[in-house]
Design goal:
Aspartate Aminotransferase, domain 2; seven-stranded mixed β-sheet; 2 domains; 14 helices; globular; binds pyridoxal-5'-phosphate; three-stranded antiparallel β-sheet; 14% strand; Aspartate Aminotransferase, domain 1; 12 strands
Length: 386
Amino acid sequence: MKLSARVNQVSPSLTLAIAAKAKAMQAKGIDVCSFSAGEPDFPTPKHICEAAKTALDEGKTRYGAAVGELRLREAIANKLKKDNNLNYEADNIIVTNGGKFSLFNLMQVLIEPGDEVIIPAPYWLSYPEMVKLAGGTPVIVETSAENDYKITIEQLEQAITPNTKLFVFNSPSNPTGTVYAPNEVKALAKIIVERDILVVSDEIYEKILYDDAQHLSIGSIDEEIFKRTITSSGFAKSHSMTGWRVGYAAAPMEILKAMAKIQGHSTSNVCTFAQYGAIAALESSQECVQEMVQAFAQRRSYMHAAVNTISGLSCPKPYGAFYLFVDISKTGKKSLDFCNQLLETKQMAAIPGVAFGMDDCIRFSYATDMDTIKEGIKRLTEFVDS
Ligand SMILES: *Cc1c(COP(=O)(O)O)cnc(C)c1O
């Protein structure tokens, strides 16, 4: 059978391959220490589940507007005004099947053959594939550990060509945990406005911050950058709702209407009662978010310090999200070999950096309990020492 050229250029997900192998080992009764999860290890807060159950009982089980329930879009617009200083109306919001589909949909409405999309590496592994599926060209700009994996102003300027359509900005970052400081976000915004390109700001980890790290939404800086910004986010990471599949994009009207067309012919509305869970997530106390962040903060301090004591390994301190991005270049191994051997010999799962565009590194998620983290550090030390 001949499959489309479109799908043939897309790489399979390495994250899923390692996770599947770890799961298969667990199913055989092997004690695997897993640091591969890209999701919080907490259950969804009870009040959110209760709100979805009530919605089910009330018969919120039918088709809804493709762009999402009005009440949820209003709640999101309020949140963006209050938390992010972003002046979107409910009409500027589309509720999507996770933050992932908001980004996929956006690429469909903006990108065509010949268009270039600038993506700093290491990157979330779906960005380049989404660009390719839209027929565009990902332009990967490699950042360095010395610069905390941040793209510099010079790098961004040099990457922009007459074909550049969009810059993909993700702070706090998956896989590095890097958080751009407000003055750095402003400097990037200045270039985006000067060179008249668009930016999509993936803010899915905005609530997961440590120490005195601050999140600044790039679209909030001034009117000029606001016009060129699409803000993408969701409930998966902040409220531990990965399986619910509720995300959103906020965008200028012209883009929003185009995304609504794509959604109307693809996913249609997000599961109706799941949207009522998301309304409760926004309209109730945010204490549950803070509790999760506090737990992550403890694990992050412990794990960052412990990994840096292992000779041959190093990583910058993450200020957001729940990942450590560890440089393994001194071990002389490439990331896929490192991860495969670590899983086979020490039953410890991590994600090879090659999946994120950086083969000298691996990603550990600390969205797991302290006992697993302590045991993992032991196994990792033994592995590197041997
Ligand atoms: C998890 C994640 C998303 C979106 O996840 P959904 O489950 O689709 O909401 C988007 N961007 C990054 C960087 C992520 O890690």
